[in-house]
Each structure stands twice: as structure tokens, then as C-alpha cells.
Design goal:
Domain Alcohol dehydrogenase-like N-terminal: 24-147
Mean pLDDT: 84
CATH architecture of the largest domain: Alpha-Beta Complex
Keywords: Metal-binding, NAD, Zinc
Largest sheet: 7 strands, mixed
CATH superfamily of the largest domain: Medium-chain alcohol dehydrogenases, catalytic domain
GO molecular function: metal ion binding
Number of helices: 12
Distance between the termini: 40 Å
Structural class: alpha/beta
Shape: globular
Strand content: 15-25%
Pfam family, one: ADH_N
Organism: Geodermatophilus obscurus (strain ATCC 25078 / DSM 43160 / JCM 3152 / CCUG 61914 / KCC A-0152 / KCTC 9177 / NBRC 13315 / NRRL B-3577 / G-20)
Length: 417
């Protein structure tokens, strides 16, 4: 089968790899029809996540069940399914408590559950879904059935990670109806967090970023766009809320934040700004991502994977901080039904739908923010017809920019801050 294979930093290729096969009675084989390029994939693409040559990326996957193991009871050949990005066993202590994003059986190195295409050692499938086929273990738990057909494909595929992660960020921050919410970052997860805050009944949602096209998308869904390049975003939001700050906040930028100074002061810049933005006793949600290496491939000033956070302000304000990967299975059925009933359309974040064979170009251009790339959906088996690839009404019609070189800090054009 064809798959997106990592070669070296800033280089992937579409190559022939062995087809997956049923290995355990509870496995299924899924023929992939849609698979997304995620920000975590870009971190691995950049060489920041320890990927080895030959790794197959892709943890946001949707497709059709092709083969069913003898121990699978809830799925049949031909079922249309979407897979949560983390693998869960369903029987460990955390899974039984609903914390499937922290499955103890699939955990690696004492951290969170393993994901498809994981580049770290984990007792889960190492192959990702940016391929024609994917093996799914514990399939009765790890496959969410979808309505048959092809309708809402670019909405449903986001149930694998981005839509539930945005909702999870709001849950971590305890967003309630009528509240004001600040979301830092207007990438796909940030836009989803803002969208979910509005679905939860927030009265006003402020979205902070410096990329004009992303701020425009935030305005389109009814959020208040805050341009971080125009001044201190915490001060801007304070002014817009009559000096109070917001009731809750979500950090979707994660760690590390590229630093142009090299003095180690910026890795926690966004989280510190969020601490200053939210009013005393408010809630903070940090759903990730967190990469242990910076843009140059090494850890931050205080050591790999560490942050220099203004804990004194966080504690003095009595803020509640929630972190962790999304427990997708806790939310995916309800979010699926919102899509099915026409109450939610998360696919607005999708800017491009491309054939799998064009993945190398898509990675390069998404990494460099060329042509307004926000969220890319790859279609295995689709012919390479690039002229029709941009999704009209979701990013189509934007002028193509020439690729821009990174700065000395490794910052991509339009990257935070």
C-alpha cells in the first residue's frame, strides 16, 4: 500500500509499505478515506519529536472497515468509522474511569496514551493512518460508527482529534453559558476551542493570534479577533472587558513557543499571558500540544519539556489549571450527533483537501503556511489534481505566496508569537 513515510527533517515521501494485517482477534483493518495533517505531525516533520526514518505518520483518520477480527462484536465489514487519535484498551483503571486519553495499557514511558503514528516507544501500533489502510486494535472501543455514505466527510474526520480537543479545552477551563473566554492561538485546535466555547453558550470569545487569515476565520464564527502583533493581548482583552479580564481561558499554542531572543524567556509566554488575561478564580485549560524539543531540536532553557511559568501570579489569583490530552471517547458520540443533526460544522477549519500522493508538497506548504494553509485533509486513492485541491469557501481563492525561509529561531511565517 502507499503511505506517507518520514525520511529526514523536512522531508516525507509517499512510498510502498507492507499492508497491515489482523494481529489480534480484536483488530480491524480500515481502508482510509480521509486523514489529516496535524500540528503534531508538523513537529515530527521538522525533526522535533524523535521520528525515525521509515515512520508512517497520521493519527486523524476516517475510513471503511475492510477486515474484522474474530473477537470484534460491534463492527462489520463496510462500516464507516472514525478513530480517536489515541489508542485505548477499555479495561485499565483509567479507561474504566473514562480517561481513555491516558490509557495505562497504551501509555509510553509513563506519559499519555500512544497515538497512531507515535514516534516514541509504545505498546501500540507504530504505523499511522496517512496510508491506504490502518490496523485498529481494540476496535470495538477505538472505532466510532458513522452514518453510511460520504456526507460530512471533512466534518466527521475532525472527530478523531481536533473537534474533541477544542471541546476538551473548554471543559478543562470549566466554560459555562454566559461567560467570557480567551483562546490563545487560532490554528485548527484554537478555532475549534473558540467554536466549542460558543457552542457551550459563551457570551464572548476572544481569539488571539497574529496571522490575519486565521483571525479572519475567528471573526467568521462570531469570535472577537485579537491581533497579538498590535500590542499586549492580555492588555487588549482587559480593555475589551472593562478591566475585568475573561472568566476562562484556553491555551492551544502549547509548548514550546518559538523564541526570537534565545534567552529561554519565551517558552511559557502564552501561558503567562493567559494567566494575566483570566480574572481571579477563573479557569485555565491547556489541552496541548507539548513537544519536548524546541524548533532547533533541543530542550528549553530550564531543561527538556519544562516551562518557566509565573506560578506566583497563578496562585495569587486562585486560578484553576486543567491539562491533558482529550479523552476523545468521552465526547465523540455527542459531537458526532451534533454534526449529523446539522448543529455543528467543524469542517470550516479545513482549508485544503488533497490526494495522498501530494502529501510531500502539502507538508512543506502547511509547514511554511503557504496559500493560507490551516487544516489539510488527505484523500488516499484520489488522483493528483492540484488545480482543484483548495476547498472553495474554506480557504480557496487566496493568493499563493512563495515559500518563506525560517528565521534564526526556526519560526515559521505566521507562527506564534
Amino acid at each position: 500500500m502507499q503511505a506517507v513515510v518520514y525520511r529526514r527533517p523536512f522531508e516525507v515521501a509517499v512510498e510502498e509499505v507492507p499492508d497491515p494485517r489482523i494481529e489480534q482477534p480484536n483488530d480491524v483493518i480500515v481502508r482510509i478515506t480521509s486523514t489529516c495533517i496535524c500540528g503534531a505531525d508538523l513537529c515530527a516533520y521538522e525533526g522535533r519529536a524523535g521520528a525515525e526514518p521509515g515512520a508512517v505518520f497520521g493519527h486523524e483518520n476516517l475510513g471503511i472497515v475492510e477486515e474484522v477480527g474474530a473477537g470484534v462484536s460491534a463492527l462489520e465489514q463496510g462500516d464507516r468509522v472514525v478513530m480517536p487519535f489515541t489508542v485505548a484498551c477499555g479495561s485499565c483503571r483509567n479507561c474504566r474511569a473514562g480517561a481513555t486519553g491516558s490509557c495505562l495499557t497504551a501509555a509510553w514511558a509513563g506519559r499519555g496514551a500512544g497515538a497512531y503514528g507515535s514516534v516514541a516507544p509504545a505498546p501500540t501500533p507504530s504505523a499511522g493512518g496517512q496510508a491506504e489502510y490502518l490496523r485498529v486494535p481494540h476496535a470495538d472501543l477505538n472505532c466510532l460508527p458513522l452514518p453510511a455514505g460520504t456526507e460530512h466527510e471533512s466534518d466527521y474526520v475532525l472527530l478523531s482529534e481536533v473537534f474533541p480537543t477544542g471541546y476538551h479545552g473548554c471543559r478543562l477551563a470549566s466554560v459555562s453559558p454566559g461567560e467570557t473566554v480567551a483562546v490563545y492561538g487560532a490554528g485548527p485546535v484554537g478555532l475549534m476551542a473558540a467554536y466549542c466555547a460558543l457552542l457551550c453558550g459563551a457570551s464572548r470569545v476572544f481569539v488571539v493570534d497574529c496571522a490575519p487569515e486565521r483571525l479572519a476565520r475567528a471573526r467568521d464564527i462570531g469570535a472577537v479577533a485579537v491581533d497579538s502583533s498590535a500590542g499586549d493581548p492580555a492588555q487588549q482583552i482587559e480593555d475589551l472587558t472593562g478591566g475585568e479580564g475573561t472568566d476562562a481561558g484556553v491555551d492551544t499554542v502549547g509548548f514550546p513557543v518559538p523564541s526570537g531572543t534565545g534567552d529561554g524567556a519565551e517558552p511559557a509566554a502564552v501561558l503567562d499571558q493567559l494567566v494575566r488575561t483570566v480574572r481571579p478564580t477563573g479557569g485555565l485549560g491547556v489541552p496541548g500540544p507539548c513537544v519536548r524539543c524546541g524548533p532547533d531540536g533541543v530542550g528549553g532553557h530550564a531543561g527538556p519539556g519544562t516551562l518557566l511559568v509565573a506560578m506566583d501570579t497563578l496562585v495569587e489569583k486562585g486560578l484553576r489549571l486543567g491539562t491533558g490530552r482529550a479523552d476523545v471517547r468521552r465526547y465523540d458520540r455527542q459531537l458526532r450527533d451534533l454534526i449529523t443533526e446539522g448543529r455543528a460544522r467543524p469542517g470550516f477549519v479545513v482549508s485544503h483537501e488533497l490526494p495522498l500522493v501530494e502529501a510531500p508538497d502539502a507538508y512543506r506548504e502547511a509547514d511554511q503556511r503557504v496559500d493560507g494553509y490551516t487544516k489539510v485533509v488527505l484523500r488516499p486513492g484520489a488522483p493528483g489534481r492540484r488545480a482543484a485541491a483548495a476547498v472553495q469557501g474554506r480557504g480557496g481563492g487566496m493568493a499563493t505566496q512563495a515559500p518563506t525561509e525560517r528565521d534564526a529561531a526556526g519560526r515559521r511565517p505566521g507562527a506564534w508569537p
